[in-house]
Amino acid sequence: MTDPGNPSTDAVPPPGCPAHPGAVRLGGLEYQQSPSQLYRALRREHGPVAPVLLDGDIPAWLVLGYSELSYVTSHDELFARDSRRWNQWPNIPPDWPLLPFVGYQPSVLFTEGEEHQRRAGVITEALEGVDQFELARECQEIADALIAAFAGSGHAELMSGYAHALPARAVVQMCGMPSSGTDTQQLVDDLRISLDAAEGDDPVAAYGRVGARLAQLVKEKRERPGPDVTSRMLLHPAGLTDEEVVQDLISVIAAAQQPTGNWIGNTLRLLLTDERFALNVSGGRLSVGEALNEVLWLDTPTQNFVGRWAVRDTQLGGRRIRAGDCVVLGLAAANTDPQIWPESHVGAENSAHLSFSNGEHRCPYPAPLLADVMARTAVETLLERLPDLVLAVEPEELTWRPSIWMRGLTALPAEFTPVVQ
């Protein structure tokens, strides 16, 4: 195909590289219930860097080791973000489902060097303008409204009805859109499809609709700025164009919405199924914080991330990586690397996980702090309002979405004593 990156055809690697014999397809039932077992098997067979196949058997490398992933993300001169250098573009069809992830866009995600510093600096300063106490108050109001919708029934499906809904409303409100309504819900649905498509979804079309809606928002804020992230980005002295702001808003909203929703859901699952937390969850704020951090180590919402592209031939984890090869960041695998946890015990008090990535392209400060405000407020408010909340099914009946990129439950049914509003 003729890709957005318009790469040169002479970058195609020799046949079979890196998909040499033994390359593993990323996908299948292993990822739905126990991806950690697959990561262990890959590590045993291939070491810290494994040859893998993406959708359509497109070859790539999956970085499983903590130190190797830290090295990749700390050396942009070797492993860069501009996907136009990928040597596989001639083999990518126009409807390839991962195009929203890797198709080059003029966004902060694909910039490098001084341009990345400029764009990331605008996002950082725009997010720094968010008052964390005000955000917590807004999240609590959103939480109360969501809980009120099901509190009287005595049962709820917490993934769609709460865990995903709360950060979705909070982040669009933070960016200057109404926190609810048909227009907002369509944007949220399209973001989910583009990031974590289910069978029958069209992620490429959904991504296009996201861009169109945010372009409309930018136009509105250019004419009538307000106290929101979008307006601060538009008014920043760096002078971003409307198109640059649209692209970077997509990155901000996508990073805040889907991963934070799964962070909330995965934490609620842990609190409702693990006896270590069951005794002191109600009213025990410390245990909520421990659960949030443990999830980032053991069930991180963003399991894998595409990626980096090798600038030149190099070595990584004993593998020869050729110029233009795609390197997938195995965040979940790195977090559970036995080299850093030799006794298979992850200390929940330790925050050196890679769930927000690492290096210059890590999640920009203060985004992780804002995500923590959303997640912590969501979990604490739910447990305070519904203190006898329990699972409505056996823990083993819970199922995970069949995604190699995001770790999140398909549903989290719960029961509690009905509350009269």
TrEMBL record:
Q: Which CDD domains match?
A: CYP_unk
Which GO molecular function, any one, fits this protein according to its record?
oxidoreductase activity, acting on paired donors, with incorporation or reduction of molecular oxygen
- In this chain, the stretch annotated as Disordered covers 1-20
Question: What family does the entry list?
Answer: Belongs to the cytochrome P450 family.
* Designated name of the protein: Cytochrome P450
